[in-house]
Amino acid sequence: MISSGKLTASSFPASDSIIRKLPLPKPRFLSLPNAQNGKWSFNHAVFSQKPIYISSIEKFALPMKTQKRGTECKAYEADRSLPLEINIELPDNQAKFEAAQKLKIGIYFATWWALNVVFNIYNKMVLNAFPYPWLTSTLSLATGSLMMLISWATRIAEAPKTDMEFWKTLLPVAVAHTIGHVAATVSMSKVAVSFTHIIKSGEPAFSVLVSRFLLGEMFPVEVYLSLLPIIGGCALAAATELNFNMTGFMGAMISNLAFVFRNIFSKKGMKGKSVSGMNYYACLSMLSLLILTPFAIAVEGPKMWAVGWEKAISQNGPHFVWWLAAQSVFYHLYNQVSYMSLDQISPLTFSIGNTMKRISVIVTSIIIFHTPIQPINAIGAAIAILGTFLYSQAKQ
């Protein structure tokens, strides 16, 4: 720091003896060197009330006879320092998070579709040997509920913390889930798996209509136009189905409507809740089981079940027991994964994924069960699936 000052008599004690003996020093000024035309001069005095800092002393030197180059001295006041510029590139955490979420949802969807294909195969095998869809639906829910109770008891999964308000919110979801589950099973007991899933590919149309007229949600014109090939393709496939059955057709249609309400109610019920998608579906299965059991007993009854069981065992042996257990386990697993997906996406996106999985189900069921299909029927199914693709693009 360079400073300057001027000494006066007032700077010393007021003593005459000291003043007589010690002469006052002459005022001195400090100057900064200045180079002009290769010569140095010290004519410019600096008086400052603020400290001065040297910011650059490059090539700084006292005037020497041998030094011929000029010297540049830069100084600035302490309270006027230059800002420090730092350019640091931080990683885009938001982009990484979104990429991880898309990968996670993709894995959920792939697992969900694979489990659903396996379930539909075993479910159709059970219904062919044991045409009692109400009991089959009940056993599916009972198996899933038992699996989750064991998981909670053994601490494999953490048990959810619920209250009465949670179960009240879950009740309409359980009612819709029960209706949709039974209706789909009834449909598959009457018609081919491929036909049921062709009709159920119209679920986005139900989703848009319900969201528009009951929830007041508006969509772009492209979304509404994409529903035309979905509805037209389903109608064409139904009209040309060789094994058309009105009960099977109506079961698939009712299932569409019920599952749309289930997805909407589920998304609303899961908001603000600490229950994860896996435990949410576990609670849903248990409540649906309580709702479905008395209706299953009333519609079919133990006597019909006993007769059908003996016939199924006599024709298929112990394989039938394995089919029944497998369809029940895979039903719970694929629904559990689907609810883990629903925990991350909107109900409409869920409906899109639910529809796209039907392509693999339709193709697989036709190959395994050798389902006869006419060209016009295949064209109708293709149009419906194309409409679903256009719908997903319009939504994006």
UniProtKB/TrEMBL annotation:
- Localisation: Membrane
Its keywords, alphabetically, are: Membrane, Transmembrane, Transmembrane helix, Transport
Which sequence ranges are marked TM in the entry? 105-122, 134-154, 221-240, 246-265, 277-299, 319-335
Look up keyword Metal-binding and say if it applies.
no
Name the major location.
membrane
Q: What positions does the domain Sugar phosphate transporter occupy?
A: 103-392
Of the GO CC terms on this record, one is: chloroplast membrane
Look up and give the membrane topology term. Multi-pass membrane protein
Q: Which domain of life does this protein belong to?
A: Eukaryota
Q: Which GO terms describe its molecular function?
A: organophosphate ester transmembrane transporter activity; phosphoglycerate transmembrane transporter activity
NCBIfam families tied to this protein: tpt (TIGR00817)
Q: What is this protein called?
A: Sugar phosphate transporter domain-containing protein
Which species does this protein come from? Answer: Carya illinoinensis
